[in-house]
Amino acid sequence: MTGAAGSETDVLVVGAGPTGLTMAGQLARHGVRVRLVDRALDRVHESRALAVQPRTLEVLGGFGLADRMVAVGNPTVRLIVHAGRRQRSVPLFDLGLPDTAYPYLLFLSQAETERLLGEHLATLGVSVERGVELVGLDRSDRAMVATLRHRDGREEQMSARYVVGCDGAHSAVRQFTGIGFEGAAYPQTFVLADLEVDGVEPGAAHAFLAGRGLMFLFPLGRPASWRMVAMRPSNDATPPTTPVHLTELQTLADAYAGGTLRLHDPLWATNFRLHHRAATTYRAGPVFLAGDAAHIHSPAGAQGMNTGIQDAVNLGWKLAQALQTDADPALLDSYHAERAPVGRMVLRFSDRAFTVATTTNSLVRFARTRLAPTLLPAVLAPRFVRATAFRTVAQLSIRYRHSPLSTEGRQGPPTGPRAGDRLPDAPLAGGGSLQRLTAAPGWHLLLCGPPEGWPAHEVDDLTRHHRSRLTAHHLSGKVGAAAEADDHVLRRLGVDPDAHAAYLVRPDGHVGYRAGGTDLTGLRAYLRRWFGPPNV
């Protein structure tokens, strides 16, 4: 799949972090020629981003990676809040949410995430070209012409139908394209470290609240047992580039934890500053932005890497379909329409959470250090409160109901996921689950209700005319025969076992179209628009 040096390719992906690796993987598994370059000589070996949300595990399940990530990560369901000598245990992810196979926050080093994504990419025949920097980007009549500088100084010009910038906050793709990046920097400086810590309960996440700010300890497991994040005092003028030593880490920990912790064996440590910025558009013609190139924000809520990975999953299949079919040009416009609102929502959420956590306002400091440790367990005690908060942070509630790709057909079920919503998961009677059934590349048509009610010749014509793009599945609710689901699955989709409904599931696991009954007229019109003329 990898384009040779100086050749043409379908898509050039710039940046091989988690977003770029996912983008290249999504393109390759849909049969697209892709070239992936990164100016760094090696992948990261520090933890950096460390939390993988349930929705990210779901979308990477289609890559066959979710179970491998869980096997090497640390699923955590509890937060312990420390304020002086008081501490409270707050259950956050103990809900056993029935519509996902991953009802927890997975702590996993970014180094491990990149390793697993890179190994998966290699099985698809795609390699990361390292030490290759994008130094020019121009548009010709039919393609983008990229100038690449190799580690030996040699420059190469290559052409690509599309270019995707996954190259981070200082994105060269964004700068060459002239897309704005609006926002500002936060004034605080933070310390980040992967190390060993004595005196803290293992297996849980820990938050230490103080008037000066917050310190977190997250259970990593590897490459070190703990990730430490601590805010420096507001009057600390240490430059971000200053090296961080163990003695300084211990001093910070003592200030937050009252001398109860012993830090040792740090693998790495650094100072860092945070920004909140967003690209003014995610698309400029054949050029797209994803991940940190499109949006950066505070780590509050562990949203950054997860949002970037889901950007890639959303865009990858659309580029593949645009290259392989004569679909409506609005298909590619839907990327910005769907993902930019998500980026703005994440920016607002993380900014508000960060401001509350770090402000020096005396009233907020009092609430943070005195009221929060006492009230937080009570506020979060009701399951529906935790469920609502968790689903938002877990990115399970992201939906695209106002997207041009989302169409509600006639007599849709009164409940269940609507067009634009994420397809919920549920175990199937014959084994597996609903999301695993629809994980293979392409679109999936779920025909709900007794199979004899569906016009077999029309269904056969649809799948034959859109072969390799569309797979149909009957969900009959009658366990035993040729059924693939039971009544429980149909109820989750809002369908009575004796009724009929059609759900068309996109390659990224969201519902594109749904309708009640067995009339396929609306479905055929939807497919003509977004697939182009059928294969004959």
Highest CATH level, the class of the domain at 407-531: Alpha Beta
Number of DSSP helices?
14
CATH fold name of the domain at 407-531: Glutaredoxin
Q: Which descriptor suits the 3D outline?
A: globular
Report the end-to-end length measured between terminal Cα atoms: 27 Å
Average pLDDT works out at 87
Q: Structural class, from secondary structure content?
A: alpha/beta
Could you give the count of β-strands? 24
Largest sheet: 8 strands, mixed
CATH architecture classification of the domain at 407-531: 3-Layer(aba) Sandwich
Rg (CA only): 24 Å
Helical residue percent band: 25-40%
Poorly predicted parts:
1-5, 479-483
- Share of residues in strands: 25-35%
What does it look like?
The chain is an alpha/beta fold. The chain has a domain at 407-531: Glutaredoxin, CATH 3.40.30. Helix content is 32%, strand content 27%. The protein contains 14 helices and 24 strands. The chain has helices at 18-29, 54-61, 66-72, 110-123, 172-177, 246-257, 304-324, 330-358, 362-379, 383-393, 434-437, 456-465, 487-492, 521-531, and strands spanning 8-14, 34-38, 51-52, 74-76, 78-83, 86-91, 105-107, 128-130, 133-139, 144-149, 155-165, 181-198, 205-210, 213-219, 226-231, 262-279, 283-284, 287-289, 295-296, 407-408, 443-448, 470-475, 501-505, 511-516. The strands form four sheets. Strands 1, 2, 8, 9, 10, 11, 17 and 18 form an eight-stranded mixed beta sheet that branches. Helix 1 (18-29) packs parallel to helix 4, helix 1 (18-29) packs parallel to helix 7 (304-324) and helix 7 packs antiparallel against helix 8. The radius of gyration is 24 Å and the shape is globular. The chain starts with 7 loop residues before the first strand and ends in a 5-residue tail after the last helix. Mean pLDDT is 87; it is low at 1-5 and 479-483.
